[in-house]
Amino acid sequence: MAVSASKFENAIKNAGIPKLKWWKDWDKNNWNGRKGWNSKTGDPLALLLHHNGGASTDSSKAEDNKDCKKDENGAKFVNRHPDFDSPASQFFLRRCGQLDINGYTQCYHAGKGDFKGTEWEGHKIPKDSGNSYMMGIEIASKGIKDDLTEAQWETLAKLAVALKDLYGWKDTSTYYFPRHKDWAPGRKSDIKASNSKVQKKFTEYAGQWDGKVPDIEGIYNAEADPELKNPAAWRLAARLADLGYYKGEVAEKGSQGYPAKAVANFNEDTNMEDKSKYGPRAHEKIFGLEKGSVS
User: Fold this and answer.
1) Alpha helix locations (H) across 83-149?
2) How far lies 69's CA from each of 96, 177, 190, 277, 291, in Å?
3) Is residue 291 part of a domain?
4) Are residues 241 and 272 in the same domain?
5) pLDDT (tens digit, 0 to 9) for every residue of the chain, 295 residues total?
6) How far apart are CA 208 and CA 121, in angstroms?
7) Could you give the CA distance from residue 272 to residue 266 in angstroms, rounded to a whole number?
8) Do 156 and 25 share a structural domain?
9) In this structure, are 239 and 191 located in the same domain?
């Protein structure tokens, strides 16, 4: 069953984004005949990242980007594209970090493009049909260089988590958050930030753990074999990073071994009987499996 306007609204309001603006008719579900989504689930499959090329500055300094009104003209254009009298994307992200919500169903933003032969081919989106399958976000940027502000990155990361949870996307990887240039290479250059930069910022502002609890046996296996780099070790390191124990590093999926030092520090702080070993009690507390556990 497709996500309703009210469920969408609640998800965005609960995303932890400090500044939101809901434009009139954001909950309208029919723009020029575009209603709902063409996917099998009835929901969007990804969020396409755009930049508008019309920011007032390319400075990423916080003091230069405090005034949200500086992006008002850009926001108005995105809210009602003059050629279509409909939103030019579902979201607009100002340099102050404010997220403007223009719609929640189909609208014009993707244009001609194709994922054939790319890592996004698995979405099975027909050529030139991105609008019918993907949401879009216009990010205020000069578009000459990678000039997104930290406030924008924080909001984008929190939005990514909210959309992932709302629509049941597997994670917040590049697969679900492609750039416009990934859809229309050669025709578009937005956004200037690389996909690896996007993922790094998502991790920085929205946490490393993907929310899935690993099997404790997988952790035991990684603990016993220093050469073993399995998903359980990665999820443990990611969760400990979010809790402040795996410091100064990013848990790398596919190359993450058992985080022995982080586990020892956690055991020390939480008065575990055996400070050097992983056990069921630590597993419960780290992954929130018991009442009153670390959150």
Assistant:
1) none
2) 9, 27, 23, 54, 45
3) no
4) yes
5) 689 999 999 999 988 898 999 999 999 988 877 788 999 999 999 999 999 998 989 999 999 999 999 999 999 999 998 888 889 999 999 999 999 999 999 998 999 999 999 999 999 999 999 999 999 999 999 999 999 999 999 999 999 989 998 998 888 888 999 999 999 998 998 999 999 899 889 888 887 787 789 999 999 999 999 999 999 999 999 889 878 888 767 788 888 999 999 999 999 998 888 888 999 999 999 987 754 434 3
6) 25
7) 8
8) yes
9) no
Token code pair at residue 149: 């502000």
Residue 138 tokens read as 């216009």
Rounded alpha-carbon distances, angstroms, from residue 129 to 1, 39, 135, 183: 22, 11, 12, 10
Sequence-distant (≥ 6) Cβ neighbours of residue 288 within 8 angstroms: 294, 295
Instruction: Return the residue matching tokens 């985080």.
Output: 259
Q: How many residues does the chain have?
A: 295
Helix (H, G, I), strand (E, B) or coil at 178: coil
Distance CA 260, CA 236 (A): 10
Laid out side by side, the sheet with 99-101 consists of: 20-22, 99-101, 91-93, 134-139, 46-51
Return d(Cα 162, Cα 45) in angstroms, integer: 14
Whether 77 and 146 share a structural domain: yes
Write out the residue range of the structural domain in which residue 132 sits: 5-205
Residue with tokens 């216009």: 138
Give the strand pairing for 34-35 and 30-31. Answer: antiparallel
Rg, C-alpha atoms of the chain: 21
| Count of the separate structural domains present in the chain | 2
